[in-house]
Design brief:
The chain has 63 residues and is mostly beta strands. Helix content is 0%, strand content 68%. It is globular, with a radius of gyration of 11 Å.
Length: 63
């Protein structure tokens, strides 16, 4: 199964936010991430990069 890993880029450092991201929902002040088993995390910021071909990653950056 190829689900994505979410990272947040903070001052050039990538920190993992969540593995097995199944859904990303845009909200007014960020994004709600939902994992394979229903766990949720909220990320404030904007999407910096999405790579579904090589790494299956979504990188956010703080505003």
């Amino acid at each position: 199964m190829c689900l994505s890993i979410a990272y947040i880029d903070s001052d050039g450092r990538k920190e993992e936010v969540m593995e097995n991201v199944a859904q990303i929902e845009a909200q007014d002040d960020g994004f709600l991430l939902t994992g394979l088993f229903g766990e949720q995390k909220f990320v404030q910021g904007r999407i910096k990069n999405i790579d579904f071909v090589n790494m299956h990653t979504v990188t956010f950056e703080k505003k």
